[in-house]
Amino acid sequence: MIKFENVSKSFEDADALENVNLTINKGSIYGLLGSNGAGKTTLLKLLSGIYIEDQGSVTINDQSVYENTMIKDQLFFIPDHPYFLSQYTITHMGQFYKNIYSNWNEERFQNLIKAFQIDPKRKLHRFSKGLQRQCAFILGLSTMPELLILDEPMDGLDPVVRKNIKSLIIEDVAEREMTVLISSHNLREVEDICDYVGILHKGNMLIEKELDDLKSDVHKIQLAFKDGSPADIFKGLKLLHSEKRGSVLLCIVRGNEADIRTRVKEYEPVIFDILPLTLEEIFIYEMEDVGYAIKNILD
Ligand SMILES: Nc1ncnc2c1ncn2[C@@H]1O[C@H](COP(=O)(O)OP(=O)(O)OP(=O)(O)O)[C@@H](O)[C@H]1O
């Protein structure tokens, strides 16, 4: 299990993370969302052992991550700009990682090079951004990591490659319980593979939730009453948003569906529907609740 407990990290002129708590269960795919400068990369680098926390603790299975070679052998970090040794081909990089990672899988490496049709003789720095990223995935997955850490992984990949890479990730999660942490500022990019989502904003973790919980916890309700809407109808429940559309009141309410039904029925509405919410809507309303427009992580 991965745990961040009250983690803070500052740089000379910026507090990148403040008292962040985060838990990631084994075999989970965790989407870390946040706008530019929210602190995502800093969090990923702390988990990769590249940075040391100023305060709090970052642990994997109760062991501190920083300078822990045993843990580093089990994780692979693909940064937003993958780094390769100068003049190296993918074969050279494979040799390099083979000497570092104890679980290196040569057969898988060769198969992936073929599947992605990568020229093994071509220098990596001559590849396009998208191809370099594919090579980083091939190398990362060949280390057979327990934990795969991805910073904006789909940037520059075409839809077919995205789909293939997502399938490979899901396969590893299903077959050998690999854990994955994916950062993105685009919810749509990760919502189909993540089972858990956390939102960082200005160094603070705003929401951390299982996607299914998030979906079952927030409701869109359409209401109309004979004599206008009763003012206290949602008293005691968490009203995230409401708007009038003619005589119909549209509300977004957080809470237990049965409680909401019981409460609303007491007021004898003439229209009462509970409608499904998209994940995107849930995030917009949840974030409205904490006073921040989340638009830019949804575009
Ligand atoms: N090496 C560094 N030196 C100084 N400040 C840094 C460093 N790394 C990050 N920061 C600062 O920490 C804050 C968080 O940055 P970080 O890169 O973690 O955010 P991010 O969510 O990954 O952003 P983006 O989506 O734009 O990549 C920013 O204010 C940034 O300027």
From TrEMBL:
Organism: Cytobacillus spartinae
Classification via CDD domains: ABC_DR_subfamily_A (cd03230)
GO molecular function: ATP binding
Domain ABC transporter stretches: 2-227
Keyword terms, alphabetized: ATP-binding, Nucleotide-binding, Transport
Keyword Nucleotide-binding: yes
Taxonomic placement: Bacteria, Bacillati, Bacillota, Bacilli, Bacillales
PANTHER family: ABC TRANSPORTER ATP-BINDING PROTEIN ALBC-RELATED
InterPro entries, per the entry: AAA+_ATPase, ABC_transporter-like_ATP-bd, ABC_Transporter_VariousFunc, P-loop_NTPase
Protein name: ABC transporter ATP-binding protein
Keyword Oxidoreductase attached: no
Pfam family, one: ABC_tran
